[in-house]
Design goal:
Layout (H helix, E strand, L loop, with lengths): L1 E6 L2 E3 L5 E9 L3 E10 L6 E6 L5 E3 L7 E6 L4 E6 L8 E11 L1 E6 L3 E5 L2
């Protein structure tokens, strides 16, 4: 089994910054793609940022220039640095990873709340 544990969420004022972390643990041979999604009540979960094992990165248009995704392969950890936060960034943020251990499986974290409000 594999567990993804997110941390770093919280309450921040507009214009502020937060850094999310997601650590994968368990039966892991390697992790290919790691990503951050977010979801607000009543809406579909949306992709925020994605990074492959080779370092290719893509962002949602709404966060380009403000958010930065990175990963530490030695620690099986992915990060999301969020700057210039806006109220519309308020959501539950979920970590997602494709983990290889004999077969490739997709896993989700439990989510961490980010609230941007004055």
């Amino acid at each position: 089994q594999v567990q993804l544990v997110e941390s770093g969420g919280g309450l921040v004022q507009p214009g502020g910054s937060l850094r999310l972390s997601c650590a994968a643990s368990g039966s892991i041979s390697s992790i290919t793609t790691m990503a951050w999604y977010r979801q607000v009540p009543g809406k579909q979960r949306e992709l925020v940022a994605i990074i492959t094992s080779s370092g290719s990165i893509n962002y949602a248009d709404s966060v380009k220039g403000r958010f930065t995704i990175s990963r530490d392969n030695a620690k099986n950890t992915v990060y999301l640095q969020m700057n210039s936060l806006k109220p519309e960034d308020t959501a539950v943020y979920y970590c997602n990873a494709d983990v290889l251990n004999i077969i490739l499986r997709n896993y989700w974290g439990q989510g961490t709340q980010v609230t941007v409000s004055s």
